[in-house]
Amino acid sequence: MSKEWGHAASVEPETVDGALLARLSRDHDVAAELRGAERRARRPADPRVSVVIPALNEAPNLPYVLPRLPPSVDEVILVDGRSTDETVELARQLLPEIRVVTESAAGKGAALRTGFAACTGDVVVMLDADGSTDPGEIPLFVGALLAGADFVKGSRFLLGGGTADMPRHRRLGNHGFVLLTRVLFGARFSDLCYGYNALWTDVIDDLDLSAIGFEVETMMNIRAHRSGLRIAEVPSFEYRRRYGEGRLRTFADGWRVLKTIVRERLRREPAVESERRPQLIGDEEALSIGIDG
């Protein structure tokens, strides 16, 4: 029986597909588009969905995350950062079928790479263990992938999204980074430093991720854009973490994000970027969903 995906009001596969065809750049890379079309044609209509959750001493928060996962999720991978509390034990109590792997190195970027390597699904969704990201939004992300996107990023700044955990200085910093990526790469994102993302596993190698810390989200978004992947933004609401102190350090991690943006600009461009510059469907004022490419 086919699983139910993408029934959120903001995802309309037929409309998105038509817009994709209508908004292809006049100078797009035909060869790259054909390769992408072949890859999309091989993807299943009813994909196996893996969820990757990096966690370090998040035992008090897991009851707000694991029981709320949609039943249509096929695989859950907890990437443990060598927790010293009951994170692993509680995870297995809450979800006996969960797979637990230990991160190879410290940092969120390293944890995600470890989780990706362990995935067996066709689609992977990245979820935080602190209760700030809503597992109930997973069908919206998967629906956008089924509508034709290769990579789907959550946005707190689209209609229907929002945040309860972003002070003014962080909001201004995120906005500044969004503008910078628009100037340097032509990427028309509405949000940049947010970790709720999903992608087909057949594009993981295209991203060639190497970031260690929280800057991994910035690297992921920029490389998806520069690789010519079709990128969708969907609205997402970020909650405050339930318990404990977050590990994000505004200025230190902001500096890492800035350095990542600059390094990506200096990095040798993939061949596709010089011939094809994808853009989000619609303007930056788009209200619900846009696909890059």
Outline of this structure?
The protein has helices spanning 13-22, 30-42, 87-94, 108-118, 138-146, 168-185, 204-207, 216-226, 250-266, 271-275, and strands spanning 49-55, 75-80, 99-102, 123-126, 151-155, 162-163, 197-200, 231-235, 237-238, 290-292. The protein has 293 residues and is of the alpha/beta class.
Description:
The chain has 293 residues and is of the alpha/beta class. It has a domain of 202 residues. 36% of the residues lie in helices and 14% in strands. The protein is built from 10 helices and 10 strands. Strand 2, helix 3 and strand 3 form a beta-alpha-beta unit. Helix 6 packs parallel to helix 9 and helix 8 runs parallel beside helix 9. The longest helix has 18 residues. It is globular and about 50 Å long. 46% of the residues are buried. About 14% of the residues have low confidence.
